[in-house]
Amino acid sequence: MKLLLLCLGLTLVCAQEGTSDVIAGEWYSILLASDHREKIEENGSMRVFVEHIDVLENSSLSFKFHTKNSEPCSVFSTDDGNNKFRILQVNYSHHIIFYLENFSDSYQLLELYGRNEFVEICQKYGIVKENVIDLTKVDRCFQARGNGVA
Questions:
Q1: What confidence tens digit (pLDDT) does each residue in 11-28 have?
Q2: Which of 110, 14, 88 is nearest to 58 (CA)?
Q3: pLDDT at 1 over 60
Q4: In this predicted structure, what is the pLDDT of residue 34?
Q5: Order of all β-strands in the sheet with 83-91
Q6: What is the mean pLDDT of residues 114-133?
Q7: Which structural domains are found in the chain, ordered by start?
Q8: Which intervals hold domain Lipocalin/cytosolic fatty-acid binding (predicted)?
Q9: 75-105 in b/e burial notation, b at 16+ Cβ within 10 A?
């Protein structure tokens, strides 16, 4: 199962003392990229949305994902084969970039996860949560950028 592979692949990530306190918690999927686009497009096997990362007693990581295929959002439970999984970049307060290399179907996947501390910062300045707009869910005029790609 893919979740087991992800946990095993990240066993060493939390080997340092104190890491578990900073990596565990809520995360949000921001960007996905793959050299096999069909894997991350709608109904793709790797179109997953992270909700939570936990650190297990053996220092491996456990992820709670959701996927949205032909049915409403459900807990992620597909298996996409033999994977090598590692962290490319991390700022535990803000973001993590994961790199996955799949050897069964021969593809690569990069995932950017972020924290949602922005809402807490807004609330400190008197801006209520209802007045925060998630721009990742709207058309951000990418087509207007220099390369014309949406």
A1: 444 444 455 568 888 888
A2: 14
A3: no
A4: 93
A5: 28-34, 107-114, 95-102, 83-91
A6: 83
A7: 2-116 (2.40.128.20)
A8: 24-138
A9: ebeeebeebebeeeebeeeebbbbebebeee
